[in-house]
Amino acid sequence: MKAQDTPAPAPAPACSIPPLEQASIVARLPHDPLAFTQGLLWHDGALFESVGQTGRSEVRRVDPATGKISARRAIPRQQFAEGLALIGDELVQLTWTSGIAHRYAVRNLRPRGSFRYTGEGWGLTTLGDRLVRSDGSDVLTFHAPADFAETARIAVRLGDRKLIELNELEAIDGAIYANVWMQPAIVAIDPTTGCVTRRIDLSALVAEIGLTDEDSVLNGIAWDAQHRRLFVTGKYWPTLFEIALR
User: Fold this and answer.
1) How do residues 107-145 score in pLDDT, each as one tens digit?
2) Run of H or E including 244
3) Distance between terminal CA atoms of the chain?
4) What are the φ and ψ backbone dihedral angles of 165, each rounded to 5 degrees?
5) pTM of the model
6) CA–CA separation, 18 and 162 (whole Å)
7) What is the distance of C-alpha 188 from the center of its chain?
């Protein structure tokens, strides 16, 4: 086929701007105020958390009722931990700029090796049989769980504009929920079109926490699929909130 005969890419589907929804607080649970939360997920009655900062990065299993750490595993001191996801019986933890994803047995956090990838790592979640990564841009990248090979990309848009700085991710009922760095809200993304389909205002939670450190932003979404409970927290937040969407 000649270059001039190459078909033009299909136009992106039109995205509307969903209304801003309010969330109500169901419960408040303790959270380690020294945890720089980068990744959060719920599994088998426990929270698993990726905690960042150079020299202090680790993965943890946490008792949600007490906030106590029941198991932990540090990563090399020069690396900065980011998003966390569960695929099968294995946790996968991103690093910010090292291009390394650490793998652990979810049962005991025993290391199982690592994957390599190109670009930054911010958030990570599991959608069906694929892992989905954010990198601080408007793009979500899909990876094969066996070797972390890139399989697809999608650009995320709010209305007709790119939505950048997508951060921590969580898959809920077929949609990808995301923190947006420095914003007091989470968004739901259609993984087929890239359109933002929901916006949830959590500014009341941010105000309640009342932290003035610019790094202490909303970050961390965990979904208890069995009991259909949604939890959110932030970096250095002393509280894990269970919320309900109206």
Assistant:
1) 999 999 999 999 999 999 999 999 999 999 999 999 999
2) strand 239-245
3) 53
4) 60, 40
5) 0.91
6) 15
7) 12
Q: How confident is the model at residue 212 (pLDDT cuts 50, 70, 90)?
A: confident
Structure tokens at 138: 């408007």
* Count, residues in the chain: 246
Ramachandran sector of residue 147 (left: φ over 0; alpha: ψ -120 to 50; beta: rest): alpha
Q: What is the pLDDT of residue 2?
A: 43
- Are 21 and 30 spatial neighbours (Cβ–Cβ below 8 Å)? no
Phi, psi (deg, nearest 5) at residue 220: 135, 115
Q: 39-63 as b/e, with b when 16 or more CB fall inside 10 Å?
A: bbbbbeebbbbbbbeeeebbbbbbe
Alpha-carbon gap, residue 18 to 26, rounded angstroms: 24
Q: Give the span between the Cα atoms of 138 and 194, in whole angstroms.
A: 9
Q: How confident is the model over 14-30, as a mean pLDDT?
A: 94
Which alpha helices (DSSP H) does the chain contain, by range?
A: 203-209
